[in-house]
From TrEMBL:
InterPro entries: Epimerase_deHydtase (IPR001509), Lipid_A_modif_metabolic_enz (IPR050177), NAD(P)-bd_dom_sf (IPR036291). It comes from the Bacteria. Pfam families: Epimerase (PF01370). This is SDR family oxidoreductase. The lineage of its organism: Bacteria, Pseudomonadati, Pseudomonadota, Betaproteobacteria, Burkholderiales. It comes from Paraburkholderia caribensis. Residues 4-226 form the NAD-dependent epimerase/dehydratase domain. Residues 127-146 are annotated as: Disordered. Residues 137-146 have a biased composition (Basic and acidic residues). Coiled coil: none annotated.
Amino acid sequence: MSHVVVSGANGFVGRVLCRALLDAGHRVTGLVRRSGGCIDGVTEWVDSSTDYNGITHNWPAGLKADCVVHLAARVHVMHDTATDPDAAFRATNVEGTLRLAVASQQHGVPRFVFVSSIKAVAEGDGGVPLRENAPPRPEDAYGRSKRAAEDALTRLGDDTGLEIMIVRPPLVYGPQVRANFLRLMDAVWRGVPLPLGGADARRSMVYVGNLADALVHCATDPRAARQCFHVADNDAPTVAELVRALGRHLGKPARLLPVPAAWLRMAGRLTGRSAQVDRLIGSLQVDTSHIRDVLGWQPPFSTDEGLAATADWYRSTH
């Protein structure tokens, strides 16, 4: 049995990860900014400082952990209002991450799992599913901050011996999902016609239960030491296939208009939303062979099972 500290334990992924760790027999301490929101069985550790300033001195007396899984982050947003987005993302996702990792090492934690993002590598696959050693081409402040954090952590691990693991998920979905995925479900639920019938590029995603399972392996399996893993579902549906599947599970007919992808890209250029359109209809497939080869990992849930669970949650709230 291991003792795992999870930052962001009361968040979308954190709650599912904590449940998976507890179900596997591990002890869990949740590092959160405010009290409340952690699932039963998790010991709360509240640190309300900005970007973990002073975390080394605020480390709870007697806390001995085998691993820290770092989920908390300044997340990607479509319309950032920060005057300097790169500086804002760097303060939390790079400097804050490094403070927590240094504190972990100084307090005897041997392993640190950093949940990064496929955006640290690229926004599109260029026709070849992205592997862990793909040349980095992050395109926004969020992706650049995640890549910089990966590099800083790798240097820290080399200097101190702290075992750094990096996990790069693509879009994460599941019950309690927010942002663009929730807006897509809203549109399907309301019967909004969507111009995505011709969107045939494939996009890797990961169900939150599959990501949590992979993170449990990374936190506890000795073979994961100092590895970088891409984690995704087995399937990479097209956007049109995704909308149809959501419609089926929501009990609402998907209203897809067969607008050619070239027209959508033109509309994106005319409206200044090319980046948003490319993220929606461009190809982004993730190669997960490395985690399968090293850890023998397989997603415990199919994409259809994940979409069904997500739709069940959505229907229960409407």
